[in-house]
Amino acid sequence: MESSKKHIVIIDDDPIYQRIIKFLAQRMVPDYEQHALLNAAGASQILKKLLKRGEQVYVLLDLNMPEYDGWRFLDLTEKASWAACSQLKLFVVSSTTDTREIERAKEYALVKDVITKPFTKENLNYILGYAS
Fold it and tell me: Which PROSITE patterns match (predicted)?
Protein backbone atom coordinates (compact mmCIF):
# COMPACT_ATOMS: atom_id res chain seq x y z
CA MET A 1 0.00 0.00 0.00
CA GLU A 2 1.39 3.38 -1.02
CA SER A 3 1.44 6.12 1.58
CA SER A 4 0.66 9.74 0.74
CA LYS A 5 3.37 11.03 3.08
CA LYS A 6 6.21 12.88 1.35
CA HIS A 7 9.75 13.66 2.47
CA ILE A 8 12.66 15.87 1.50
CA VAL A 9 16.03 14.44 2.54
CA ILE A 10 18.88 16.96 2.42
CA ILE A 11 22.37 15.45 2.45
CA ASP A 12 24.86 18.30 2.58
CA ASP A 13 27.67 19.36 4.91
CA ASP A 14 26.69 23.05 4.71
CA PRO A 15 24.23 23.96 7.49
CA ILE A 16 23.41 27.30 5.81
CA TYR A 17 22.36 25.52 2.62
CA GLN A 18 20.28 23.12 4.71
CA ARG A 19 18.52 26.06 6.38
CA ILE A 20 17.75 27.60 2.97
CA ILE A 21 16.18 24.38 1.70
CA LYS A 22 14.21 23.90 4.92
CA PHE A 23 12.95 27.49 4.74
CA LEU A 24 11.85 27.08 1.11
CA ALA A 25 10.21 23.72 1.80
CA GLN A 26 8.34 24.99 4.88
CA ARG A 27 6.86 27.79 2.80
CA MET A 28 6.19 25.83 -0.39
CA VAL A 29 5.26 22.36 0.90
CA PRO A 30 4.67 22.56 4.66
CA ASP A 31 3.18 19.06 4.74
CA TYR A 32 6.46 17.46 3.57
CA GLU A 33 8.62 16.03 6.32
CA GLN A 34 12.22 17.22 6.24
CA HIS A 35 15.37 15.31 7.12
CA ALA A 36 18.78 16.99 7.11
CA LEU A 37 22.08 15.10 7.28
CA LEU A 38 25.58 16.60 7.34
CA ASN A 39 27.00 13.58 5.48
CA ALA A 40 25.65 10.54 3.70
CA ALA A 41 26.51 8.01 6.41
CA GLY A 42 23.03 7.62 7.90
CA ALA A 43 21.04 8.27 4.74
CA SER A 44 20.61 4.67 3.62
CA GLN A 45 18.83 3.63 6.80
CA ILE A 46 16.44 6.59 6.65
CA LEU A 47 15.69 6.05 2.96
CA LYS A 48 15.11 2.31 3.36
CA LYS A 49 12.64 2.91 6.19
CA LEU A 50 10.67 5.58 4.30
CA LEU A 51 10.61 3.69 1.01
CA LYS A 52 9.56 0.45 2.70
CA ARG A 53 6.48 2.32 3.94
CA GLY A 54 5.76 3.38 0.33
CA GLU A 55 6.42 7.05 1.00
CA GLN A 56 7.61 9.52 -1.66
CA VAL A 57 11.19 10.66 -1.03
CA TYR A 58 13.02 13.53 -2.70
CA VAL A 59 16.76 13.46 -2.01
CA LEU A 60 18.97 16.52 -2.47
CA LEU A 61 22.52 15.17 -2.44
CA ASP A 62 25.76 17.13 -2.32
CA LEU A 63 28.73 15.32 -3.86
CA ASN A 64 31.74 16.74 -2.09
CA MET A 65 31.58 16.31 1.66
CA PRO A 66 34.14 15.15 4.21
CA GLU A 67 34.16 11.53 5.39
CA TYR A 68 31.16 9.87 3.71
CA ASP A 69 30.56 11.87 0.52
CA GLY A 70 27.91 11.83 -2.18
CA TRP A 71 30.02 9.77 -4.57
CA ARG A 72 30.33 6.95 -2.06
CA PHE A 73 26.62 7.16 -1.32
CA LEU A 74 25.80 6.93 -5.04
CA ASP A 75 28.12 3.96 -5.54
CA LEU A 76 26.55 2.00 -2.68
CA THR A 77 22.96 3.05 -3.29
CA GLU A 78 23.12 2.26 -7.01
CA LYS A 79 23.68 -1.42 -6.06
CA ALA A 80 20.97 -1.55 -3.37
CA SER A 81 17.73 -3.31 -4.29
CA TRP A 82 15.65 -0.97 -2.10
CA ALA A 83 16.72 2.03 -4.21
CA ALA A 84 15.12 0.75 -7.42
CA CYS A 85 11.64 2.14 -6.83
CA SER A 86 9.54 4.90 -8.30
CA GLN A 87 9.08 6.66 -4.93
CA LEU A 88 12.76 7.69 -4.82
CA LYS A 89 13.67 10.91 -6.64
CA LEU A 90 17.36 11.67 -6.21
CA PHE A 91 18.88 14.96 -7.35
CA VAL A 92 22.49 16.01 -7.07
CA VAL A 93 22.74 19.61 -5.88
CA SER A 94 26.32 20.79 -6.00
CA SER A 95 28.44 23.91 -6.26
CA THR A 96 30.74 22.20 -8.76
CA THR A 97 31.14 23.77 -12.17
CA ASP A 98 33.38 20.94 -13.37
CA THR A 99 31.54 19.49 -16.37
CA ARG A 100 33.29 16.13 -15.87
CA GLU A 101 31.81 15.81 -12.37
CA ILE A 102 28.37 16.85 -13.61
CA GLU A 103 28.47 14.31 -16.44
CA ARG A 104 29.79 11.61 -14.08
CA ALA A 105 26.88 12.24 -11.69
CA LYS A 106 24.37 12.00 -14.55
CA GLU A 107 25.72 8.53 -15.40
CA TYR A 108 24.14 7.10 -12.26
CA ALA A 109 20.71 5.68 -13.06
CA LEU A 110 19.38 6.94 -9.71
CA VAL A 111 20.22 10.57 -10.45
CA LYS A 112 17.26 12.34 -12.00
CA ASP A 113 19.21 15.54 -12.63
CA VAL A 114 22.12 17.69 -11.45
CA ILE A 115 21.36 21.17 -10.14
CA THR A 116 24.07 23.74 -9.62
CA LYS A 117 24.00 25.91 -6.50
CA PRO A 118 22.84 28.47 -5.53
CA PHE A 119 19.53 26.70 -4.95
CA THR A 120 16.31 28.61 -5.66
CA LYS A 121 12.60 28.13 -5.19
CA GLU A 122 12.40 27.44 -8.94
CA ASN A 123 14.79 24.52 -8.41
CA LEU A 124 12.57 23.15 -5.64
CA ASN A 125 9.47 23.54 -7.84
CA TYR A 126 11.26 21.62 -10.60
CA ILE A 127 12.29 18.81 -8.22
CA LEU A 128 8.88 18.46 -6.61
CA GLY A 129 7.22 18.38 -10.02
CA TYR A 130 9.50 15.64 -11.32
CA ALA A 131 7.29 12.74 -12.34
CA SER A 132 9.68 10.03 -13.47
Answer: RESPONSE_REGULATORY
